[in-house]
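The instructor's notes for this session suggest beginning with a concrete chain rather than abstract definitions. Hand out the sequence below and ask the class to guess, before any prediction is shown, which regions might be ordered.
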Amino acid sequence: MASSSGMSPTSTTKVRSDPFPLHIICSLLLPFVLPKKLTLRYYDRSFLQADAQIYFGPVQSAAQYFHELGFERPLRATTPDFLTSLTNPDERITREGFKDSVPRSPDEFANAWKRSAQARQLLVDIQAFNDRQPPLTAKPTTSSEKNEWKDKLK
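After discussion, reveal the predicted structure:
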């Protein structure tokens, strides 16, 4: 899908899901060909490297997270460009003083994420979400079961 044709379905999905208490999972491959407007459209993003999660959260916070890990954002680089560059060892720029401490391998990135304050907050947020949601042990079939389940969501 070309970057311009990607805007319509993702915009429609986002607009239609906003009024409801649900989460849309969207996989966008090759983020470097997507326009900035599209990459910033969703609230949270999951960054994976070699099947390991290395960040989850708002795109705007991702740049700060990786900066704090010791990576320098190139001048004039957009946030999506900076984040994409982190997946390529030849494009990463290490901040002064961080040469020996920045993660280099996918496992090191994943371990840095798991130890981060952001990951700990994510676990707290997930638990709070799970506490608010009614468990759905079986699909409601009768009208009264459906109404009871809807009442729990209010």
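Then share the key points. The chain has a mean pLDDT of 78. Strands lie at 45-49, 52-57.
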